[in-house]
Design a protein that fits this description.
Order of helices and strands: HHHEEHEHHEHEEEEHEHEEEH
Number of strands: 12
CATH superfamily of the largest domain: Periplasmic binding protein-like II
Low-confidence stretches: 288-300
CATH topology of the largest domain: D-Maltodextrin-Binding Protein, domain 2
CATH class of the largest domain: Alpha Beta
Radius of gyration: 23 Å
Structural class: alpha/beta
Mean pLDDT: 87
Strand order of the largest sheet: 4-3-5-12-6
Largest sheet: 5 strands, mixed
CATH architecture of the largest domain: 3-Layer(aba) Sandwich
Shape: elongated
Length: about 300
């Protein structure tokens, strides 16, 4: 049997993998916390954390145990509330990037919030952080933009939608009046680009390199609003997701050579009912929005 006290201690430790802060949170001494974590690790037969440089990080097994511990705590609170006649303290946590929240998930969140009787908590986190939040049990649902097909260890993927990529330029730019724009047309252009190491930057660099197109970094920025503002200010042109609302001062042109971006929702396997309901609301409303957008495009 798993020691429930040690499991609670590990759930607290997993928040930031810091023994001294965990001890303060639990009102225990640091040696007492360490003893509980060691006891849990020995009972499970696997290391739950390890040293990395001057700090500590969870092992793969530790991440899984942390998620289990948080889920067990939530279920225990729900059980106590039901037994006391207080009703379940329903809560669902969504982790997603600011761009996805503003430009992709809005209608789905609106529909879910109207129907949901519990509390919806939103954590702003980029793709990697959103995946990590779900893996560690900090969030029930994480949304990320997948630039390439992949599998998620211990997580369940729910496809939401696909979004094309577009070039955004000022209205007086030489490409603004073009009916069709290719990557070759961007030769020598200044681009507002994500910093190196970001998934979109890697995808763009690979696409330009494959076609022998050389571009210049006019500015480095993250966040669609900031990117669009820099384009307005003349820092360069930019490639953004087609779901982004473009200001009237700018023009967007589809870049059909670039792959469409898949937005997926991730949950733990066998998600709780509230998490499944949130994913369903996001998926249904995104499909409706995509169908409406296609219909409008055909009408024009």
């Amino acid at each position: 049997m798993i020691d429930s006290t040690a499991l609670r201690a590990f759930a607290a430790f997993a928040e930031d993998a810091n023994l001294s802060r965990t001890a303060r949170r639990l009102h225990l001494s640091q040696p007492a916390v360490h003893a509980q974590l060691k006891r849990l690790s020995e009972a499970l037969g696997v290391p739950l954390y390890e040293r990395a440089g001057r700090g500590l990080v969870l092992t793969r097994e530790g991440v899984e145990v942390a998620a289990f511990a948080r889920d067990a705590e939530e279920r225990a609170r729900d059980l106590v509330a039901r037994l006391r006649g207080e009703g379940e303290a329903r809560r669902v946590v969504l982790a997603a990037g600011a761009g996805a929240l503003l430009h992709v998930l809005g209608e789905g969140l609106r529909a879910f919030a109207r129907a949901y009787e519990g509390r919806l908590d939103i954590v702003t986190a980029d793709g990697a952080a959103a995946v990590d939040a779900v893996a560690r049990g900090v969030a029930h649902v994480g949304v990320t933009a997948a630039h390439e097909a992949r599998t998620w260890s211990d997580l369940e993927e729910h496809r939401l939608t696909e979004v094309g990529q577009v070039l955004v330029v000022p209205r007086d730019h030489r490409l603004a009046s073009r009916r069709r724009v290719t990557l070759a047309d961007l030769e020598g252009e200044r681009l507002v680009m994500p910093p190196e190491g970001r998934p979109q930057r890697a995808a763009l660099d690979a696409a330009f390199a494959a076609r022998g197109v050389k571009v210049n970094a006019g500015a480095l920025a993250t966040g669609w609003e900031l990117v669009l503002r820099l384009v307005e200010l003349g820092a360069g042109v930019a490639v953004v997701n087609g779901s982004v609302r473009v200001p009237r001062e700018l023009v967007s042109k589809p870049l059909r050579e670039l792959p469409r971006i898949r937005y997926v929702a991730l949950t733990r396997r066998r998600p709780r009912a509230d998490a499944a309901a949130l994913v369903d609301a996001l998926s249904r409303n995104l499909r409706s929005a995509s169908s409406s957008a296609r219909s409008s495009s055909v009408a024009r």
